[in-house]
Recover the amino acids of this structure.
């Protein structure tokens, strides 16, 4: 069955530290992959997406993600975290032809001042 | 351009009742998807509509249904409400079918007593 796994439910980092959120997928074919962020009281917002091509994708708010086919991973990174990055992050997969998003369980990020 | 709007934002119902939630997509968007978000199950896909036709359906009982109108506005209905239906219901729109970014509304918080 198709699935998206985020192994870390909670992550705490200090402001200014680097961040990496993990995401692994299980699909028959290479899925389309997304990272969304959900801030308290706000809707889900797209950070970045990978469809094909360059495996390192840049997104908004200084985020980037790297697609690694050999590891079935699509990890999200940011070199220096800001307090406003505290939120829940979702890795999402979609396979061509299904047009159906499969969400990971989410990683809640806490940022220490 | 106005974002995705959902009404009502909050609802309280009792077991056995039915409820209808409404979603207005971004102008020009023809695809509307619905998701259920709960602390225990995370974000789960309910169904997707495109051109007034249901294109995809998640693993939910038949009590959950939806429809889309000619102006792309969508409604979802839950009949015979159960306590476990308490959740945040999110609507998302995208311009077309396919691996597009989905734009999410703020959600409708449904509480079943």
């Amino acid at each position: 069955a198709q699935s998206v796994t985020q192994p870390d439910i909670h992550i705490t980092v200090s402001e200014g530290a680097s961040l990496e959120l993990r995401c692994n997928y299980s699909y028959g074919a290479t899925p389309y992959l997304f990272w969304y962020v959900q801030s308290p009281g706000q809707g889900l917002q797209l950070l970045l997406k990978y469809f094909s091509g360059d495996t390192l994708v840049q997104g908004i708010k200084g985020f980037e993600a790297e697609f690694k086919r050999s590891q079935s991973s699509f990890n999200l990174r940011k070199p220096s975290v800001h307090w406003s990055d505290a939120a829940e992050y979702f890795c999402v997969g979609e396979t061509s032809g299904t047009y159906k998003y499969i969400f990971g369980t989410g990683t809640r990020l806490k940022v220490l001042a | 351009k106005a974002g995705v709007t959902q009404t009502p934002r909050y609802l309280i119902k009792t077991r056995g009742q039915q409820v209808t939630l409404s979603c207005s997509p971004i102008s020009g968007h023809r695809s509307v998807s619905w998701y259920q978000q709960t602390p225990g199950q995370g974000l789960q896909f309910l169904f997707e509509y495109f051109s007034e036709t249901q294109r995809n359906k998640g693993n939910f009982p038949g009590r959950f249904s939806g429809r889309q109108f000619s102006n792309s506005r969508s409604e979802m209905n839950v009949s015979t409400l159960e306590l476990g239906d308490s959740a945040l219901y999110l609507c998302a729109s995208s311009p077309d079918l396919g691996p597009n970014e989905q734009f999410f509304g703020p959600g409708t918080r449904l509480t079943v007593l």
